[in-house]
Amino acid sequence: MTQSDSPFPRRRAPLPVEECGAALASRLLSDRWTLLIVREGFYGVTRFDDMRADLGIPRSVLADRLDKLVEAGVFARQPYREEGARTRQAYVLTRAGWKLSLTVLALMQWGDEHLRGGKSSLDVTEKGTGKPLRVALVRDGDDFVRLSQVDYMPRNTGETGK
């Protein structure tokens, strides 16, 4: 039985918060600035001053969040130097950072639908075909699965000794 089939809501989450990947990720991505910095990386913006200009973020906040994202392996620093200038650091998404693009796209999709009245300001399409894309759950074989058909079952990993 899925949660949506039950006449009564669950009283407790199926997984302790300390074992939940979403809870761990929320510690890192816990504020608006951090998610927007990841969004900048997703769009290909890599330079500190460009991120700062796009976001209107205070310099100290951007430096702090980038340090945390580099430490977590979401961004990597890459030195660059423009002619006649000192060496600076670019911030490029790592493979782990790129995997957050689905999170950013899901938030964008939700925001467009529920906060922008269904209006999207960005088309997300498949290269080559131009077909629109959206974030969804799929099972092996690329079959779409509706949320009403999803169940959440904790794994017995033995990590907490329970």
TrEMBL record:
InterPro entries, sorted: HTH_HxlR, WH-like_DNA-bd_sf, WH_DNA-bd_sf
Family annotation (SUPFAM superfamilies): Winged helix' DNA-binding domain
Domain HTH hxlR-type residue range list: 20-119
Highest taxon above the source species: Bacteria
Any single Pfam family the record assigns to this protein: HxlR
One Gene Ontology term of the molecular function aspect: DNA binding
Keyword list, A-Z: DNA-binding, Transcription, Transcription regulation
PROSITE patterns, A to Z: HTH_HXLR (PS51118)
DNA-binding in keyword set: yes
Name of protein: HTH hxlR-type domain-containing protein
Lineage of source species: Bacteria, Pseudomonadati, Pseudomonadota, Alphaproteobacteria, Rhodobacterales
